[in-house]
Design brief:
Layout lengths: L1 H4 L7 E6 L10 E4 L3 E2 L2 E2 L4 H11 L37 E7 L14 H19 L8 H11 L12
Parallel strand pairs: 1-5
Antiparallel strand pairs: 2-5, 3-4
Amino acid sequence: MNRYEVDPAMAAILAIDATKGNRILNRRGFAITPTVKQGWILRVSEHLLDIMQNVTGEPPAVMPVTNQDITPYGNRLFHMNSILQPAVSTEAPVVGVALTAAVAVPGCATGANQAVDIAQAARFAVETAKAWDRGNCPFHDEEEFARIQKLYGSLAHLQTQGKT
């Protein structure tokens, strides 16, 4: 399904998901993930943290992710959920926008998603798109990404099902 969710023309992706069934980030609202690009979990974008802070009026929240979370489903590894699955189908940088809750509840449960949290995440996405369009919101540092690949090589193999 990932190839149907990602258009090759996308220069960057915000993947919005109701990530409420976790015990890691226990805060109501939304959180962003570090940027994921071609198998690399990169540092969190300062620009996105600024936008989040401006939209919510609160300190920004970051949802931690693991290497397993950025691999394709079907490999029988633990995945927090599908929020970063678009990253397996693109070379573009991907940032997850996780709707969160103070306690672990099923994100798909009836009534589990609060209108104010959805509205804040939507405003965040709109403000991010406006900043991106102005050239003021890189999801990652291109020079640093080139350097990390030069030093350590590609991790694009994490975008595949792995060795069989």
